[in-house]
């Protein structure tokens, strides 16, 4: 029976089936190793600030001389990092589950960006960063103001984190027909062509070494992508290694 079934056409069918099964297994394997890598990244990202918080708190408990404002600040900074990470993860899972609500209102996008930048400049000026805003007239859009704020905030945060010695970031608003385009430009290291399509992926980081001073979650841009897709907005990135990056998105103007 065995010989008959595996002869001729039947055999080819079995061979095809086995090819399909192999391909599926490979695909599943890829997903499985990707999943493991994601969990490893997340665990690492959660554990690093927690380890720091516990270590600093213990040192301050046991060695009275170490109870300094600088050490307390480390605990506060690391707790802040942890909060950002957990918030990003929650946003991400809500976006993935499709339960993220969109509360659209008509508002002035230009003024909203202006006030975000004002706040951010105040926060960052002591570190020498400067964010410039250029706009060609004030425009209104119909969108979820808080979510668009999150998009702009994430893009500026990245621009600041990845900018080089020149700590200047440019935000530009360009009106074109019935659309308004927002561009966030830095003069940092830029992104290699091969890495460019993946920067929007969850937990993707070009530099996976964890050595970088800035410890990102790899979630920022996938949140940006999800929010913009929720708004049916166009978006993209133009980047050249050594010459910096421009991240952009477009919304429809509400007249
Ligand atoms: P992260 O928390 O690591 O910044 P993101 O999702 O915001 O995560 O970005 C994904 C990756 O894309 C980053 O790790 C970085 O490698 C790259 N990237 C994002 N923005 C920039 C930028 N302005 N300049 C250079 N690389 C960037």
Automatic annotation (TrEMBL):
Residues 1-33 form the HAMP domain. Residues 41-255 form the Histidine kinase domain. It is found in: Cell membrane. This is histidine kinase. The chain holds residues 268 to 522 of 522 of the full protein. The gene is resE_3. It comes from the Bacteria.
């Amino acid at each position: 029976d065995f010989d008959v079934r595996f002869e001729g056409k039947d055999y080819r069918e079995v061979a095809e089936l086995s090819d399909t099964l192999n391909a599926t297994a490979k695909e599943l394997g890829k997903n499985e190793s990707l999943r493991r890598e994601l969990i490893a990244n997340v665990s690492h990202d959660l554990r690093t600030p927690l380890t720091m918080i516990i270590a600093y708190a213990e040192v301050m408990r046991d060695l009275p001389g170490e109870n300094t404002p600088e050490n307390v600040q480390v605990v506060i900074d690391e707790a802040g990092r942890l909060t950002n990470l957990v918030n990003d993860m929650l946003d991400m899972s809500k976006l993935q589950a499709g339960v993220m609500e969109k509360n659209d209102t008509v508002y002035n996008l230009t003024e909203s960006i202006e006030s975000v930048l004002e706040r951010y400049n105040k926060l960052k000026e002591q570190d020498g960063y400067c964010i410039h805003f250029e706009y060609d007239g004030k425009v209104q859009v119909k969108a979820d103001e808080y979510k668009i704020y999150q998009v702009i905030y994430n893009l500026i945060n990245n621009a600041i984190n990845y900018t080089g010695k020149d700590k200047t970031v440019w935000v530009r608003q360009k009106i074109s027909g019935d659309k308004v385009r927002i561009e966030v430009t830095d003069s940092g290291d830029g992104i290699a062509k091969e890495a460019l399509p993946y920067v929007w992926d969850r937990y993707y980081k070009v530099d996976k070494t964890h050595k970088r001073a800035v410890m990102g979650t790899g979630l920022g841009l996938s949140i940006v992508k999800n929010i913009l897709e929720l708004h049916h907005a166009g978006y993209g990135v133009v980047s050249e290694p050594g010459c910096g990056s421009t991240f952009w998105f477009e919304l429809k103007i509400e007249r």
